[in-house]
Amino acid sequence: MHLDTRATEPDPEPKTEPPLGRGRAVFVALLALLGALAAGHLVAGFVGLAASPFIAVGNWVRDLSPHPVTEWAKDTFGKADKTVLFIGVAVVVFGCVAVAGLVSRRKAWPGQLVAAALGLVGIVAVYTRSDLGQLGILAPAASLLVGVLGFAWLHRQALETAAWTDGDRRHFLRLSAGVLVGAGVAGAGGQLLASRVDVEKSRRAVGRLRVAEPAPRVPAAATFPGASRFVTSNADFYRIDTALTVPRMTAEDWRLTVHGLVDRELELSYQDIRDRPLVERTITMACVSNDVGGSLISTANFIGVPLRDVLAEAGVRREADQLLSTSVDGFTAGSPIDTVLDAKRDALLAIGMNGEPLPQEHGFPARLVVPGLYGYVSATKWLTDLDVTTFAAKQGYWVPRGWSARGPIKTASRIDSPRDGASTGTRFTVAGVAWAPTVGIDKVEVGADDTWHTARLGTEVNLNTWRMWTVDLELPPGEHTIAVRATDRTGATQTDTYLPPAPDGATGWHTISVTTK
Ligand SMILES: Nc1nc2c(c(=O)[nH]1)N[C@H]1C(S)=C(S)[C@@H](COP(=O)(O)O)O[C@H]1N2
Ligand SMILES: [Mo]
């Protein structure tokens, strides 16, 4: 019997099953997304990978995250916080893709709207970053275009093969494979284009830096068995970056602009810097996020030119009280002008670290190093811009995110050995480090079950570095609490009151427990 459904049901659409199954609709959206991301990545190969939509959105989310959220992420995920961020962004994007597919089982336009919205998020993420330049917009724009048009095209192909005959299946399979391969090639192309800027090659081409004034050798008596090595190797030096990928800049392309409240603006090239008499200084750098007992502190022999010489050439005006330094990745740090001009500190515009040009991860081609200030207010890596300004006018990256505008390093100390929870004999040695950069350490005491023992101090290498200490103890068998406290040259002893790193550095005594038998 022949039934004419049109005659009995004038509007069949709401009752019949949509032409595209859920799985296929979502798959079509996924293909469109991969194509869109790959197109964006390819264009980003020309304009800078940081403009690649996925990376840009990841960086954007990170920059927008309120301070408690980033702190929570760091506490919970530690060094994996960036991976977790990437995965989080991926989950949200795939959620949008699933929605795009599910609302497009009949018509393409609802999914196209979702694609356009995602593309716009990418455009905003790139647009709001000062460091990506106007051309950066082209990458998310390419993604938007490919996403919106690609989705419509794929959707039409899916509808045309909706009967799902053997021929349809083959056609659709070939199509999907084509899109996947195309996306792979475009994505890899972007990666390849970006790596044509061979930063490592540029770094190797720098060769040996000739140092006019080498740092004095660190005497053997500056450290003790069980304490950290005095000079940290480049590989072991702690690392803190806000950027999700290491910024890429060659020595050839690098320029430093000095401007703002100055008598003369300067523009310096890498060659301008290395042609000057280079000095080498042993300096301890510390991160404000370093918790009591933490390892976000290291020491290196930095090579560069005194920052105050560069600023003197520009002529700092009297009204200025802040030096705002900017990185190629958009990170900024604000340091007090009088601190960076202080002759005793030897703040450096550094291009070398432990005998080599700066490693890429530590800021190649150039960075700042200012003794006595936490890195977030001083140690800008991949430095490109020095703005002589005021604290009233401008804020560094971390300041609106809840960290103090001024970040002098607090006097602190750490036990390096034994490890917390270790078992030892009843006679054992405790060793570690103490620091009060630019001030100096006068005394370190080790408390064992509330009796304080004065530690032996290592040679003071200079006022801008940490100082090692050691003490021999003899304790009866059992469990003991061992604490350390340092007294700096102002006579101030570390407080036992614990304060977390935010907003201006942790306080409290590093305390461990050991079992003797
Ligand atoms: N461009 C840029 N510079 C930066 C940072 C950053 O995230 N981006 N982090 C700062 C912080 S918080 C610290 S503690 C030091 C760490 O330098 P390192 O990674 O070489 O140890 O760099 C500073 N300079
Ligand atoms: Mo830091």
Written description of the protein model:
The structure is a single chain. By secondary structure, the protein is of the alpha+beta class. The protein has helices spanning 5-8, 22-47, 53-64, 67-77, 81-102, 109-127, 138-160, 166-195, 199-206, 270-274, 307-314, 337-341; strands at residues 211-213, 255-260, 266-269, 278-286, 297-306, 322-327, 332-336, 348-353, 356-357, 367-369, 383-389, 412-417, 423-424, 427-435, 441-448, 451-454, 456-457, 467-474, 478-488, 510-516. Strands 1, 4, 5, 8, 9 and 10 form a 6-stranded mixed β-sheet that branches. A hairpin with a 4-residue loop joins strand 6 (322-327) and strand 7. Helix 2 (22-47) runs parallel beside helix 8 (166-195), helix 3 packs across helix 6 (109-127) and helix 5 (81-102) packs antiparallel against helix 6. It is globular and about 85 Å long. Residues 1-9 have low confidence and may be disordered. It binds the ligand Nc1nc2c(c(=O)[nH]1)N[C@H]1C(S)=C(S)[C@@H](COP(=O)(O)O)O[C@H]1N2 and molybdenum atom (MO). The ligand Nc1nc2c(c(=O)[nH]1)N[C@H]1C(S)=C(S)[C@@H](COP(=O)(O)O)O[C@H]1N2 binds at residues 237-242, 285, 287, 327, 329, 331, 362, 375-376, 379-382.
